[in-house]
Structure to design on (138 residues):
């Protein structure tokens, strides 16, 4: 596999290949992994919205995200955007906690999750910068 800008996706893909060998099972395992990341992203989005705007808004946010055709189409493809979005939603969930509850370990976890998202895809730079600015100003 040649070097690419999606370092983490290459690592994940290589480990799936080592687990299954060069068979069709690699494709199905990778799709299940992406589907799991997508389902966790939906759940975290709904949970985060419930915490910020109430249960009704949480259900609506999860439903609207699941309803978009882009989310549905990319949810089972082996793409770096899917796990990167999960890492970013996890980082936002940590950032959205009340200020008194944040500890240094949570700040470190937020930074690690943003870094992980950047290792999956460089498109995560803009949301990561926005999250950092929101945390710094908030």
């Amino acid at each position: 596999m040649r070097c690419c800008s999606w370092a983490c996706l290459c690592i994940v893909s290589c480990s799936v290949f080592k687990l299954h060998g060069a068979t069709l099972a690699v494709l199905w395992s990778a799709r299940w992994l992406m589907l799991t990341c997508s389902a966790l992203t939906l759940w975290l989005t709904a949970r985060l919205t419930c915490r910020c705007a109430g249960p009704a808004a949480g259900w609506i946010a999860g439903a609207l995200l699941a309803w978009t055709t882009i989310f549905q189409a990319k949810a089972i493809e082996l793409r770096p955007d899917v796990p990167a979005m999960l890492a970013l939603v996890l980082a936002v969930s940590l950032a959205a906690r009340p200020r008194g509850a944040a500890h240094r370990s949570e700040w470190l976890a937020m930074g690690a999750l943003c870094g992980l998202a950047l290792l999956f895809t460089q498109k995560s730079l803009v949301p990561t910068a926005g999250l950092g600015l929101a945390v710094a100003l908030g």
Summary: The helical segments are 7-20, 25-53, 55-67, 69-74, 81-95, 104-120, 125-137. The chain has a mean pLDDT of 85.
